[in-house]
Amino acid sequence: MLACRHCRARAIKKRHPDELTTDEAFGVVDQIAEFGRPYPLVVFTGGDPLMREDISDIVEYATLKGMRTAIAFSGTKLATEERLRDLMDAGISRIAISLDGSSSEIHDHFRGISGTFETSLEILEMAREMGISRQINTTVTKFNIDDLPNIARIGIENEIALWDVFFVVPTGRAKKEYMPDAREFEDILNWLYDLSKRTPLNVKSSAATHLRRVEYMRDSGIYNMEHGELYFRLLDAIKDFPSGEDKEIVAGAHGRSMARDGISRMMGITDGRGMFFISHIGEVYPSGFLPLIAGNVRKTTLKEIYMESKLFQDLKNPDNLKGKCGRCEYRYICGGSRARAYAMTGDYLASEPSCLYQPKGGKMVI
User: pLDDT band for position 254 (50/70/90)?
Assistant: First the structure.
C-alpha cells in the first residue's frame, strides 16, 4: 500500500466496511445516465481502484450504457497483464498512471514505497503492447519542478495520449509548503503551453484552470505578463525535444481542443461545475480535492445533488466568486481552483491563491 506525500486521502490498510457494493455501483452508473447524453466522462480512481475485484464489471456496465470510462491508479503489482486485459475487454477508454518523477529516487520518495517507479513504467509498456490508450498523471510540487521536462520526455518516448499535470492542493497529507508559489505557477503553465505547441505531447492541467487563461491570451496575442526565470529554465530543458505539429492544448480555453487526446470534454469544467466526485461510501463532493459533502447517493440521486444542493449551485455560477476571481473576465473558462481557495482560506468562493493575473473586469466574449 502506498503512502503518497501529496495525496488528498489517508492511507488505510483495510477496506471500508460500508463501501458501495457492486449493485450499488451499478446504481450509481444508472444515476449518471439520468443526466442524459452526452454522458459525463467516468473516471475510476482511488486510492487504488484495482483493489476492487469487481472493477472490470463496473467498467463494463458503464460502457454498455454508452459511457466513456477511464481508470487512474498508481504503479502497484495489482496492475497485472490479466487485470489490464480485463479492463480492455470491459471497454476502458484510457488508463492513467501516476508518475511524479523521472527516476526511482524522486518518484518513489513521493509514493513512499520503493519500486513503484519501475512498476509504473512496466505497466505503461504492457498497456502499449495491448493497444490501450495511456495517460501519465503528475502532481507538481516544490520537489519536482525541475524534473518536469524529464517526465515529459518519458511521456513522449512512451507515446502517451495525454500528460495530465496536477498542481498540488494542500488537503489530506499535502502541506502548504509543497505548493509552488504564484510566480512558479504562471511560469510552469506558460511552459506547458509551449511544450504542447512544440512537441508531440498533449498536455492538460488539473487544479490549475488558469492554463485556459494562458492559452486564450497567448493564442490571441494579448499575453503581456513577464516570464520568470523558471519559465526560461524549463524551456531551455526541452530545446532538443522532438518537434510536433502546432496544436491547441487540451485545456480547451475556447472549446476547440477538448477532444485533442481522444477523450471529449466540456469547456470551463472545474470543481462543482461540470464535475463531481463520488467516494467509496457514496458521498458526493464537488471534486476529489474539495472535502465538502453535498449529499450521498444512498439517500439522494446524483442529479438532485448536482442540480439542487447549495454547494453545487454556488460553484456552478462563476459570478458568485469573490475577490479578483469574481471580477476576472476569464472566470467562465477558468474560475480558479475552488479546492485550493478552500484549503488556503476556508472559503470555496474566495480568489485562487496561486494566480498572478490582475483582471481587467467584465466578461470575456468567446
Answer: very low
pLDDT at 10: 53
Tracing cell 504562471 back to the chain, one arrives at: 186
> Is it true that the peptide bond before 91 is cis, omega within 30 degrees of 0?
no
| Full DSSP string of 51-70 | GSTTHHHHHHHHHHTT--EE
The model's pTM is: 0.90
DSSP codes of every residue in 118-140 = HHHHHHHHHHHHHT--EEEEEEE
Note the pLDDT of residue 3: 47
Q: Which triple of cell numbers denotes residue 21?
A: 457494493
- Residue 191 CA to residue 194 CA, distance in Å, equals 5
Q: In what order do the strands lie in the sheet with 295-296?
A: 277-278, 283-285, 295-296
pLDDT, tens digit (0-9, with 9 covering 90-100), for 331-345: 999 999 999 999 999
Give the residue among 158, 340, 155, 314 at the shortest CA–CA distance from 250: 155
- How many C-beta atoms lie closer than 10 Å to residue 232's C-beta? 12
Residue 19, burial from CB neighbour count under 10 angstroms (0-12, 13-18, 19+)? middle
Q: Is the pLDDT of residue 247 over 70?
A: no
Q: How far is residue 252's CA from residue 204's CA, in Å, rounded to a whole number?
A: 9
pLDDT at residue 43 greater than cutoff 70: yes
DSSP class per residue in 315-363: HH-GGG--HHHHH-TTTTT----HHHHHHHHS-TTSPPTT-------S-
Query: Is 160:134 a contact under the CB 8 Å cutoff?
Result: yes
Using an 8 Å Cβ cutoff, are 208 and 167 in contact? yes
- In the chain, the percentage of residues whose pLDDT exceeds 90 is 78
DSSP string, 91-108: T--EEEEE---SSHHHHH
Q: Give the pLDDT mean for 182-211.
A: 95
